Amino acid sequence: MLDYLQRLYRNGAELWFRWDRQWVVVNAKGRALTQRVEPRMALMEVELPPAAFDEDWQPAPHSCLVIRAPGMDTLKVPLAAEHTTLDDVSVWEWSGSAYDEGAEAAEWLSAYFGKPSRLVRFKEESEIRPTNPKYAQGYKITFTDCFPFLIASQVQFIAHRSDCLAYV
Fold first, then answer.
1. Spatial separation of the C-alpha atoms in residues 43 and 73, rounded to whole Å
2. What's the whole-model pTM score?
3. CA 23 → CA 29, 129, 135, 137, distances in Å?
4. Which residues is 89 bridged to in the sheet?
């Protein structure tokens, strides 16, 4: 996680936000899974190609989102693949359609969590999720809780991860 955060700051926060909360794991009903419900998520590691944080980078056919978890083979999700659309995805109060990242990702996540799960990506071309104008007027978000920014210290991250590991 620290490597990831260091890359973000080294390459500029605006490039980080390009990828921030673009993906979410959903259950068989299309509802988002969170670490609150699935503490084993805290053990997952996610990696993007280092060049993904360069300003004008576009995914190549071999570019992948890489996901690792204890006891699982590495999952590679192509970033430039054709996607089918999954309707009725819900994250908190929002519902809409998202790109389904495919059968291989679904099988991997289902095996890891022990129940049907899918990986979906926010469909920016057709979906709009505005922030609550009472608190942050004029911003759009993807699969975040409520706001385009989450500010947490390293101490908070370590404490949260420790709490989550206690439930695994």
1. 14
2. 0.72
3. 16, 14, 24, 24
4. 96
